[in-house]
Structure formats: C-alpha cells, structure tokens
Amino acid sequence: MPRRLTAAGVAPAVTFGVAALPATAAAAGPPAAAKADPAPSPRSRATSAADKAATSGFHALAKGPSERYDRKQVTPWGNGLCSIAYERTYRGLPATDTIGQTVTIPAGCTKATLRYWLHIDTGESGATAYDTFQVKVNGTAKQTYSNVGAAAGYTERTLDLSQFLGRQITLTFTATEDSSLRTSFVVDDPTLTTS
Fold first, then answer.
1. What span, in angstroms and rounded, lies between the C-alpha atoms of 118 and 10?
2. Would you state the pLDDT for residue 35?
3. Per DSSP, what are the bridge partners of residue 135?
4. How many domains does the chain have?
5. Does pTM top 0.85 for this prediction?
6. Strand partners, 8
7. Domain-terminating residue out of 90, 111, 138
8. Which of 56, 90, 124 lies at the terminal end of a domain, its last residue?
9. Over the stretch 131-146, which tens digit does the pLDDT of each residue have?
10. Are residues 83 and 10 in the same domain?
C-alpha cells in the first residue's frame, strides 16, 4: 500500500496537523537493482506537505497577496503525527486574527457563563506583553492575556455574561502578534452555558 500524507489547516491557529504513515507502510514491490536514496522520513514528508499548503494560499487560511506564513516549529506527536506551527505576517508587520459568533442569551435565565480552554505558547521572554489575546463582547475587551502567561497545557477560563441576559451579543477572540518572536493562542471547546 503506498504511503499517504494528509494535511489539514486550522484557522486562525495557523497550525497544521499532518499525518504520515510510517516507513513500514511502503509500497510492496521488487527491490531496486541499485541502492536508491532513502525514503524521506514521515516528519520531513509531513513538513513538506504543510509547507506546500501554507505557500499555496490554502483556502482555509485566507492568505492575501501580501501575507506570508513562515514555519516556526515542528512538534512530533508519535505514530507518524506531528503539528507544524507557522507565523503569519502582513508585509512583515504584526498579524491580528479574530474569530467570533453572535449569540442570543435567553431572558428567562439567571446566569450565563462562557467557558473555554486556552493554551499560550511563545518564543518571547521576560515580563513584557508583546503579543495579546482578548475576549470581547460587542467589541469591548472583557479579558486580556499575553505572551507573559505562557505555560504548558491548557487552562480553563470563564467569563460571566449574566449582565447580557435577554440580549444578543457578539463574542470574539482576537489574537495580535508583533513582528518579532511568535506566540500561539490556542482556544479549545468554547461553550456558553445558562441556568
């Protein structure tokens, strides 16, 4: 069975999860008469596939003509899987990514809470906030985190939205990086609960 590569882009995290079957899955066939170049490793094949996706303007990345994705890190996960992190710049300037959703919080509730998990990974050092992540409600920042809060793993975050009961609001997550060292703000499992 021939080896296969699968690449998937996730916006706005700008991280590709790439899977490659191990070399033992190589196509069966007669041995080559002369010693051929060794097959590329799963990691190098995955990195190559992700680089092609980033430079091609992969539609999910919404890359404009003046934007660039530079590979910053390759993290092996085992079993031939790895993630590849890219830094996005616009003409070498800082990048800002925003995702959001408009929701209506029911009027008959007494409490509304936004819960999400946040992981911050950075190449920055020191106590200066160069890169920021904000949670906004109707365009107003309610929570702000930065590269200074980088840590291993995910941290659960909550935001009380009870003051918006019975109203329609727009929730946004906005990550802003300067043009220097990268910081990744990775959001997982955002949930709005009411009671």
1. 16
2. 57
3. 143, 173
4. 2
5. no
6. 17
7. 90
8. 90
9. 999 999 999 999 999 9
10. yes
Give me the chain's average pLDDT, please. 75
Q: Is 157 exposed, middle or buried (0-12, 13-18, 19+ CB in 10 A)?
A: middle
Range of the domain at 70: 5-90
Judge whether 19 and 47 are in contact, CB under 8 Å: no
Answer yes or no: do 11 and 82 share one domain. yes
What CATH code is carried by the domain that includes residue 110?
2.60.120.260
Instruction: Please check whether residue 188 is in contact with residue 156, taking contact to mean a CB–CB distance below 8 angstroms.
Output: no
Q: How many CB atoms lie within 10 A of CB 180?
A: 12
Nearest to 46 by CA among 84, 87, 86: 84
Token pair 């080559």 is found at 32
> What are residue 80's phi and psi, to 5 degrees?
80, 5
How many residues appear in the chain?
195
Average pLDDT over every residue of 137-166:
96
pLDDT of residue 151: 94
